[in-house]
Structure formats: structure tokens, C-alpha cells
Amino acid sequence: MPHLLVTPLSSLPGVLDTHAPSHLISLLSPEHMIETPAGFPPDMHLRLGVNDIVDPAAGSDPPARRHIDALLEFSRGWDARQPLLIHCWAGISRSMASAFTILCDRMGPGREIQVARAMRERAPHAQPNRLLVQHADDALGRGGRMVQALNSMGPALLVEEGVTTLFPMEDL
Predict the structure, then answer these.
(1) What would the pLDDT profile of 141-171 be if each residue is shown by its tens digit?
(2) Which terminal Cβ of the chain has fewer Cβ within 10 Å, N or C?
(3) CA 78: distance to chain centroid?
(4) What is the average pLDDT score of the chain?
(5) What share of the chain is helix, strand, coil (3-state, %, to 5)?
(6) Beta carbons within 8 Å of 54's beta carbon, 6+ residues apart
């Protein structure tokens, strides 16, 4: 069954061993970016150096359209035979925004609220980075529907670190 996994950095080694993903996406601040894990194919590891900020003026390396363009190009090369694993520092914001983007892209226009509600059900702690989602909304031509779908999720459960969350494509 094709699925995405979202996890915090602290759980990455165990999730790699347990789920054997074919693709890996790392979203970390540039100064904390990891190397490709030993034994994982480097060409199947997308490393996006981006800080978890929602106001471009609030700091360096904010989410940008180029990050979403790279994410979409990489994820469209995933054949879904094995899991795609996404992580950030805590598994709450950047990685959840990336999963939301990939799921909305795969599910097609008009399913944004359905994807957001499925995300909230599976990940009460999810708080997708709004700036990443705004760029994704623009890139996918969704006319604000992805951002509106985030509003339909309601508030996230406040945690310091998320838990590994599986998103089966066929259950959405």
C-alpha cells in the first residue's frame, strides 16, 4: 500500500530501518542539515535547507517557492512502491507542510479539505508551515484552497516533538 511517513529527526534511524523507504526528504535549517544516511541512495534523498518561519522577514532561509518546486519535482519521481519518508526537526511543521503538499498534488484539485482533515485525524500534533503551504498553493494553482484547508484543521495538539505518522494514499 503506497504511503507517506512523517517523523521527527530523532526517530529517523529507526523509521528508516523499520519502513525501508525508497525516497527521503529532509527539511532542516541549513546549519543543521544532515548527510544522507549510510546505505541510503544519495539521489533518493532531497535535502532542503529551510528554517521553520512563516514570515520571510523574520529570519534567514525562509520557505520559498524554489523549495516547493524542488519538493514537487522530487516527489513526482516517487513510484509509491515503497514509502516516501519526510522529516524535519520535530515532525510537526515543515515536514507536515511537505506531506500536505505531496498529498494534495497526488489527490488532485478539490480534495484539499479532505486531505487536511485526514492529516488532523492521523496527526493531532500537525501544524503545517503556512508559508510552505502558501507557496505550494501557488505552485499547484489551487487559488487559496490549500491555505483555507489548513484553517479547517483546527488547532494542533501542542507537543515538543511529533510522533511518526503514516499517511496511506488510498485512505484519503
Answers:
(1) 999 999 999 999 999 999 999 999 999 987 6
(2) N
(3) 14
(4) 96
(5) 45, 15, 40
(6) 63, 129, 130, 131
